[in-house]
């Protein structure tokens, strides 16, 4: 059930990891009536535990990287990271400055890159919609039984719920 | 026995757009102590400007200090460096620069008002103001080609011209915007929710504002007459009819009033600029390398912005210092927080319109 909800109404979490606020105000403009990202059912939530999509802006400064990874770790699987803005993708104009890491993908696996300085609201919406596709793919992948350890997987716990259901009667006899 | 509880707010919080962390000491909901940590977005812009970039590239770099007042940053730097390389800028370019600064002020104030409304729980008003703000953003896009981060000024002039069709579009846009601004003014003054919630909350007295060095709308709402636009003459503010806006009270309500009235002022100035736009060159030739020291102050939407440059006749500057409005305003903010209810914090914070990207650079 959650699966269909998540597809129809993903919640986003926005974190500013050292941006100039240019991309942040464009994300805010997306929430406004002209672009209105809510018509896709997308809500801006402040709580990482409820969010599915992490929108990151900024080139990841020295101080904010720990917060960023913490936030990512708190989000429940499946989750998607969208890097908004040139400086989040590669470091942009801040690349190589003394306190800057140069791109968010040094810390998090990024699914969608949205370029532009500042990324325009149309591009941001496009990126989030692409993020939705990535989210769906990840949901499917989670539901597959995981063959993490090759042939050993039957004896370990890395099985999906569906898999477990199939195996239960077998365990009884 | 009274116990004090310490509540952290931030660095990531739904009511805060900015990565800033506060730690409030509270006694029964009343704040008795505040600690602010603003360094989360420090990127080292000043240092990079004196080592990695040449002085001609820096207008585009300092614009990325802050996305909201980007034009004020690049303009302050440009004006300061023009003193060092003694470039004469044509009057047309000066007028166009002033035009963009005032349009920028319009959209920045609107964003702040929207945020204040949202933090008071008035979601519909947030939507309405964001919708009105798009009108201004469209004008900016029309003039400069980008919505935010338009690199409009360059050393010696500006990059793009405003022709007759564009001027007409701006005037039309402002004409559409004006009745909306009137409605907003009325709403902020008479709406029961807003005036009830905001009167007397987060107040600072005139003396305290002066002692703690408040700037911009924060100071003018408390009755202090400080505005760089009235004090300097590098931009033609006296010619385009600038008047200072001052309110009494120093609370959130007064700050909102200052912003609304300043928006009116800015619109009048934009109209005057378009009416009396002088002819002239867009860009002047820049010769030589910066040498010596210069200081420039401009009024950003949040208050005075200060630039100090020192060059030594090479392409790279020797020293650069940026002092931004929020940075100077932090002592006043801490002062205001003490004695307030914890529940009012988001609204007070939004009414300061703090900009952490500016502060931490
Ligand atoms: S991409 Fe450009 S506008 Fe966006 S946060 Fe980075 S510097 Fe600012």
Specify the number of helices of chain B.
Answer: 14
Shape of chain B: globular
Structural class of chain B: alpha+beta
Secondary structure category of chain A: alpha/beta
| Strand composition percent of chain B | 5-15%
- N-to-C CA distance of chain A: 31 Å
Overall 3D shape of chain A: globular
- Radius of gyration of chain B, Cα only, in angstroms? 21 Å
Cofactor (chain A): [4Fe-4S] cluster
Family (chain A): Belongs to the complex I 20 kDa subunit family.
Keywords (chain A): 4Fe-4S, Iron, Iron-sulfur, Metal-binding, Oxidoreductase
GO molecular function (chain A): oxidoreductase activity
Description:
The complex is a heterodimer of chains A (173) and B (361). Chain A is α/β, with parallel strands linked by helices and 173 residues long. Helix content of chain A is 39%, strand content 12%. Chain A has six helices and five strands; from the N terminus they run αβαββαβαβαα. A five-stranded parallel β-sheet of chain A has the order 2-1-3-4-5. Mean pLDDT of chain A is 75; it is low at 151-159. In chain B, a hairpin with a 6-residue loop joins strand 7 (303-312) and strand 8 (319-323). Chain B is globular. Chain B is built from 14 helices and eight strands. By secondary structure, chain B is an alpha+beta fold. In chain B, 51% of the residues are buried. In chain B, 49% of the residues lie in helices and 14% in strands. The A-B interface holds A 15-26, 28-29, 31-34, 44-48, 58-59, 61-64, 67, 71, 87, 92-94, 96-100, 117-118, 120-121 and B 11-15, 17-19, 39-45, 47-48, 52, 60-61, 64-68, 70, 111, 127-128, 130-131, 133-134, 137, 146-149, 355, 357. Iron/sulfur cluster (SF4) sits between chains A (19-20, 22-23, 57-58, 85-87, 92-93, 117-118) and B (64, 67, 149). Iron/sulfur cluster sits between chains A (19-20, 22-23, 57-58, 85-87, 92-93, 117-118) and B (64, 67, 149). Chain A: GO terms for molecular function: oxidoreductase activity. Chain A: Its cofactor is [4Fe-4S] cluster. Chain A: Residues 20-129 form the NADH:ubiquinone oxidoreductase-like 20kDa subunit domain. Chain A: Its EC number is 1.6.5.11.
